[in-house]
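wait is this the right file?? whatever heres the structure
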């Protein structure tokens, strides 16, 4: 059986490059560090550290084990935090965390005693962090029905076409949906679910809507549109300021607005008094939701 304390010591040796340095970092004696590494190597039945007068280096087996060790220590820390009612770790996809969630986070923070830890990243990264117990709650632009999790639509956000102010469409109050056929849109973050949404909304016509560039983020898309590199389809909340100051024009589609569902996702087995459960209720019910008492 692998001992997590020994794994943590292995990481310290790997990071510091020596047993003495690892002992200093961890506050252990050097013999204790040596004993931890010996126990871990015995458990795994391989040598992990190559010792020499010049210091310590990882063996090929140690290099292979390193990412597993990091994951084990992170998972151990999350397991220890499971019953800690003073910290809540929230992950949000880039667009949601940047343009929509922040006011709700402030409202929630002002009403609770526990500390909030926020991670913002790609949808795929946030899903991975939730799966790996690195965060307690995820706010994302899509979710696949994997077992062990509960996903609920938190918000429906309209997607609008954005064009530069000198574009022929800039003066319009709406755009016929078929006008997008034959257009090549500037793409933002890969894996955000917009492609699936277009397929559902436009049906067979979606094949006639291309992607000119994949720019990685909505901020990059907005800069590219302002520069005249093309047009795009983004969340309305992402261009509120630009639409107001006239640097971009955000135009809804005719024939029924195109909306993207945003999800709040948590594990099915949350305890009744878990901060993650109260945060989900707060988002879904608004400020009338009962909150967790201060610990």
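ok assuming it is, sequence goes like this
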């Amino acid at each position: 059986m692998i001992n997590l304390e020994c794994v943590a010591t292995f990481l310290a040796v790997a990071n510091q490059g020596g047993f003495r340095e690892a002992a200093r970092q961890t506050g252990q004696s050097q013999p204790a560090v040596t004993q931890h590494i010996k126990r871990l190597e015995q458990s795994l039945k391989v040598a992990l550290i190559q010792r020499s007068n010049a210091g310590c280096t990882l063996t090929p087996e140690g290099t292979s084990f390193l990412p597993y060790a990091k994951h084990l220590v992170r998972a151990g820390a999350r397991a220890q935090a499971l019953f800690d009612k003073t910290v809540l770790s929230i992950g949000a996809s880039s667009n949601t965390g940047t343009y929509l969630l922040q006011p709700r986070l402030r409202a929630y923070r002002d009403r609770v005693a526990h500390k909030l830890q926020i991670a913002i990243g790609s949808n795929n990264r946030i899903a991975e962090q939730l799966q790996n117990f690195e965060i307690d709650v995820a706010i994302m632009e899509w979710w696949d029905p994997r077992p062990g999790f509960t996903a609920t639509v938190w918000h429906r956000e309209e997607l609008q076409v954005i064009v530069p102010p000198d574009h022929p469409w800039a003066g319009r109050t709406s755009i016929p949906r078929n006008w997008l056929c034959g257009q090549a849109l500037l793409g933002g973050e890969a894996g955000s679910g917009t492609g699936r949404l277009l397929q559902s909304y436009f049906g067979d016509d979606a094949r006639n809507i291309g992607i000119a560039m994949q720019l990685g983020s909505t901020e990059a898309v907005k800069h590219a549109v302002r520069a005249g590199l093309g047009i795009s389809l983004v969340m309305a909340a992402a261009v509120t300021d630009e639409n107001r100051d006239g640097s971009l024009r955000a135009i809804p589609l005719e024939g029924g607005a195109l909306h993207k569902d945003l999800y709040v996702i948590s594990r099915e087995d949350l305890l009744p008094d878990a901060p993650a459960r109260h945060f989900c209720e707060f988002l879904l019910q608004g400020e009338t939701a009962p909150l967790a008492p201060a610990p």
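DSSP finds eleven helices and eleven strands in the chain. so i think its the right one actually
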